Amino acid sequence: MPTLTSDDPVSRRRWRRYRFDLPVTLTVCRDQSVLNARGRSLSEGGIAVSAPVKLATGDPVMVEFTPPYAHLPIKLSAVVRNYDGEFYGLEFVAHNAEQQEEIALLRLFVQGLTGLIPD
Predict the structure, then answer these.
(1) Pick from 47, 52, 117: which is nearest to 81 by CA?
(2) Which DSSP string do the residues of 28-39 spell out, in sequence order?
(3) What pTM value is reported for the model?
């Protein structure tokens, strides 16, 4: 396994990312438009998606998807944190106790992915 240095962006991440390719429903909060998107990676704190829409850093969205190896969809609030020209980095945010519980459940689920999905 390669050694990570402080200059390596992976070593500065808060959560381990898991690669996958699955459908994501994205609701843009500013106009309530609902779009089909694709998820590229998932972590305890967010998701990377490719979407046919122009979003700005800080834009709030709703993300709905069924995680790998799960049976029920998850719907979470998120905020656009970055865009690399192809994928948006979305960070999950909780505005109430119910959303905090959903994120906590997702974190437990993602922690269980270690060894099942390559990162």
Answers:
(1) 47
(2) ETTTTEEEEEEE
(3) 0.79
Distance CA 48, CA 54 (A): 15
Instruction: Count the helix, strand and coil residues of the chain and give each as a percent rounded to the nearest 5.
Output: 15, 40, 45
Alpha-carbon gap, residue 112 to 116, rounded angstroms: 8
Question: Strands, E, within 5-98: which ranges?
Answer: 18-28, 33-42, 46-50, 60-65, 74-83, 88-93
72-92 pLDDT per residue, tens: 888 999 999 999 998 999 999
Q: Where does 23-96 have alpha helices with state H?
A: none
Query: Domains in the chain and their CATH numbers?
Result: 14-111 (2.40.10.220)
Percent of the chain with pLDDT over 70: 82
The two three-digit tokens of residue 112, written as one number = 């269980």
Residue 15 has, within 13 A of its CA and on its CB side, a CA count of 20
Residue 51's closest CA among 86, 84, 93, 90?
A: 86
Tens of pLDDT, residue by residue over 12-42, are 667 677 788 889 999 999 999 999 999 998 8
